[in-house]
Amino acid sequence: MAEPASDTLCAICPALGSEVCSSCHGIRYCSKACQKVDWPVHKLLCKKFSKDFSNDKRPQQPEFQFKRAIYFPEEGNGPQYIWLPSSGPSDEGRAVAHTHILGLKNTDLYPIDYFKENAVLHRQIDGDIVLLARIHDLNTNEAMLFGNPNKSLAKIDKELTNYWKGPLLAYGARTDVGWPDQCYDLGPVDLRHVVDYLSVAHSKRSIEQNMYTIGDGEKTRGVRFNCVSDQQICQRTQFEPMDILKSVCDGESELKATVAEKAGFPLVFRKLTFALCWRSRSHQDFSYAENPSAAFFDPGTLLDTTWLDTALRFGNPTSAIDQQMKFAKQMGSLIVVRKDGEPLTPMLMKALTEYAQQKTNEAFESENEPHTLASQVLDSISPERFRKWYSDFLFGLCEDPSVGIHEIAALYDI
């Protein structure tokens, strides 16, 4: 079956967009709930789109093509539509966007990136969206954004100003056509695409985790245990190594990791704030904050018999499994260290996670009374049993061509 066209889909979730904004007619939603999620962003340009930036308001000059672009002034009160002039083509065969229309202070904007997919929605965009900013080359591998925190973005979310500095400009471009069609108009749904891009870029830098990683204290190797959305949207690995302040090892764990403790590896879990790019999103078929693998470390909560007994009593085991995973759906990403301060490698964390999941699945398959499942999981675990299982785990890794020898060798020192 062919994928539905992107302009028929909801701007917030993967569903079909059966509802159209009654004011601008330029964006679709599947429900009032999704429209409400998007309204703080959409309202900033909704009326301007239909009032001042319809096609009949387009400037006409023979030497330029004017296309609707989105501008975020450094000292502004929010994003703005502008008619961006372009001419072309350049020596590279690309249209040339002229930023002089933004004033002398903004003639030094340069392309810093372009994107053709909304990473939050995993959705292709009809063309490329090019992002321009003021940059300062510090003779490093990555040029730095230059300027003050962007006040226009503060109208969307103040967190965005933690990273995005100076003015920003977004315009549409195509590489599969010739001049004069290489630039195209951006509309209301493209504002959502741009905001999602800026939010994902901000979330990848995860400023909030700095409280665990930056400081003068002694550090140990720990793991960032990423939820499903941070893996799929922010492109993080499930178990991400990082140096974490040892003081975290002395704090309380926000997840009762009884499985790891019984296996001989007491762990401290600290929850991270949900990433800006997906925290306000919702969908009926899944939770953006799901971290089912982490939930297996706490069978006492995961296998809470209050709901399990009721579900099975009425002959609905599928409902029981659904309720079982409720615990995991709001877990989010976590910072994890060993209580003893010893290094915690991603591969050891992977082993403990697989072990916890295996023991939980064995309890479910045993067909014992629901109220005994949690204790059955914990009674089946000991340091000796885990080390024996761990040896088999290592042997399996040796036969996996995707795992480097250095990763396997590091596992012996646990």
Automatic annotation (TrEMBL):
Domain (MYND-type): residue spans on this chain: 10-46
Gene3D superfamilies the UniProt entry points to: 6.10.140.2220
Annotated GO MF terms: zinc ion binding
Keywords, comma-separated and alphabetical: Metal-binding, Zinc, Zinc-finger
Database matches in SUPFAM superfamilies: HIT/MYND zinc finger-like (SSF144232)
Organism superkingdom: Eukaryota
InterPro entries noted in UniProt: Znf_MYND (IPR002893)
Protein name (database record): MYND-type domain-containing protein
